[in-house]
Amino acid sequence: MLSGSVQIVNQKAGAVAAVASRKPTLARRAAARKAASVSVNRSAPVFKRERSVRVNAGNDELKSKAQDLLTTAADKWEETEDKPTVVTLALAGLVTLIVTSSLLGALDKVPFLGGILELVGIGYSAYFAYNNLLFTPDREELTKKVDDIKSKIL
């Protein structure tokens, strides 16, 4: 009984050794095929057409808008009397943005919570569309609210 199990173990060991001895051979064959394909590709002529497109139409507009924004920001900064408060508020906003981003990232890793929050968002979007966008009087009221807010901001 013992000699039978030893014989089976020897057969398995021989099979494993045979497979292990074939792996380098297969690797060499694959490397040879790859080298042959690379050498064939290198000997083939390569035709490349390089195209470059230069667009200058919007470039001047973009520069002028950027310059206008910078001058407006500089003028507003000069008009500001309480500069430390503005800097503190800007830094607080940045910290709040970073904390919120990391919190949402952590919530997204909780199983099923991301899917549930997506369903809540889809449901509320449908509710909002039904209450504000479906009928004409509601749409007109919403556009009036949006215009009022825009006029207050700008």
UniProtKB/TrEMBL annotation:
One of its GO terms (cellular component) is membrane. It holds the Pfam family CAAD. The chain crosses the membrane at residues 86-106, 112-130. The keyword Phosphoprotein does not apply. It is a multi-pass membrane protein. PANTHER family: PROTEIN CURVATURE THYLAKOID 1A, CHLOROPLASTIC, PTHR33222. This is Cyanobacterial aminoacyl-tRNA synthetase CAAD domain-containing protein.
